[in-house]
Design a protein that fits this description.
The protein is mainly alpha-helical and about 260 residues long. The protein is about 50% helix and about 5% strand. The strands form three sheets. It has a two-stranded antiparallel ribbon. Belongs to the transglycosylase Slt family.
Length: about 260
């Protein structure tokens, strides 16, 4: 009897372990479960599931394919890199509080989605000044691109450093990119990589969904960074920023040249 009892308990324990492995080895989606690739099955992986926050991850109302395990994993990694445990500072929130009251009404005036205000935080949120390649200002314009969109650069003048003027130039550039790609996520990717390179990648891959394209490391993670930046600014407590509260933006005059 004792041996039979022990055997029964052993079988039950094995069944429980198998059940647990099934739970932690799948990603919950809207339609059921989908096994993760072996390379993604790590103890640190947190699933972007059908929770109330899953559908909230988007850029300019263009949603991520949340039932894609690789997309989920990439998003989680990017969110983790931007949480307070890794940043250890409220520098992003301080810059947002300073820049957004100026940026937001200009974006609205030019018909650019509000989410593009996170580009300056991604481009120059942690650092400031001129990049090794020559980009400058919070929008990190290269000299040639800056001049194309109306900024004066040279002879002791650099309007890339003017927040209002550089934001107007960025809006004109982004609007042109959207006209070319008819997608805000692709417009953001083109802002990072250039429209010519992105167009070639689209034609070569016969794919125009940013999240399913194979791009270079920087451009392939760019929109994920924007989404992560949006998350930590809009839901700071969810990402460990416990002691930061946003002040409402100051009213701005919507009249731009």
């Amino acid at each position: 009897m004792i041996k039979k009892h022990l055997l029964t308990r052993s079988v039950m324990l094995v069944l429980v372990l198998i059940s647990m492995l099934n739970i932690f080895g799948t990603t919950i989606t809207e339609t059921g479960t989908k096994p993760l690739p072996l390379s993604l099955r790590t103890s640190k992986f947190i699933f972007i599931s059908r929770s109330k926050n899953a559908v909230a991850y988007n850029f300019a109302n263009e949603a991520l394919p949340v039932n894609d395990a690789k997309v989920n994993y990439k998003l989680f990694k990017t969110l983790r890199k931007h949480d307070f445990r890794n940043v250890q500072s409220n520098v992003l929130h301080r810059k947002a509080e300073k820049w957004f009251p100026i940026i937001e009404p200009i974006l609205k005036f030019y018909g650019i989605p509000d989410d593009f205000k996170y580009i300056p935080l991604v481009e120059s949120g942690f650092t400031s000044g001129k990049s090794p390649k020559g980009a400058n200002g919070i929008w990190q314009f290269m000299p040639g691109t800056a001049r194309t969109y109306g900024l004066r650069v040279g002879h002791g003048t650099d309007e890339r450093l003017n927040l209002r003027k550089s934001t107007i130039a960025a809006c004109k550039y982004i609007k042109e990119l959207y006209g070319e790609f008819n997608s805000w996520t692709l417009a953001a990717a083109a802002y990072n990589n250039g429209s010519i390179k992105l167009a070639r990648a689209i034609n070569r891959q016969n794919e125009d969904n940013y999240f399913r394209m194979k791009l270079n490391r920087e451009t392939g993670s760019y929109v994920y960074k924007l989404i992560a930046m949006k998350a930590v600014i809009e839901q700071p407590k969810d990402h460990g920023y416990q002691n930061y509260f946003f002040l409402p933006p100051a009213p701005q005059l919507l009249a731009f040249n």
